[in-house]
Task: inverse folding
């Protein structure tokens, strides 16, 4: 967690870092959040603020379990997947694999 925070640009300007470290910062999702917050407080940002928010939305969709992102596909190997309201049982028939847990 500490390297991700240090490479976000929240503590020091990224322009003073070596070029290879700057390229690592663009892979960091915290960079885009810090850049958007910097624009909202100071009015300056490294990237356009619309691009910051679009990248954050795409990353949230990729890593969110409820939108069918990467964790959803990784969790399909489990026998039972627990959601907030439903118990999803893996099966080939998609219409019969959802059981409402509130009906129990």
Result:
């Amino acid at each position: 967690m500490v390297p991700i925070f240090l490479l976000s640009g929240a503590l020091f300007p990224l322009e003073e870092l070596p070029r290879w470290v700057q390229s690592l910062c663009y892979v960091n999702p915290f960079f885009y959040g810090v850049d958007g917050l910097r624009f909202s407080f100071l009015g300056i940002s490294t990237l356009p603020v619309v691009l910051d928010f679009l990248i954050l939305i795409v990353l949230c969709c990729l890593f969110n379990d409820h939108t069918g992102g990467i964790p959803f596909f990784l969790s399909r190997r489990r026998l039972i997947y627990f959601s907030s309201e439903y118990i999803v049982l893996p099966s080939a028939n998609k219409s019969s694999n959802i059981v409402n847990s509130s009906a129990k």
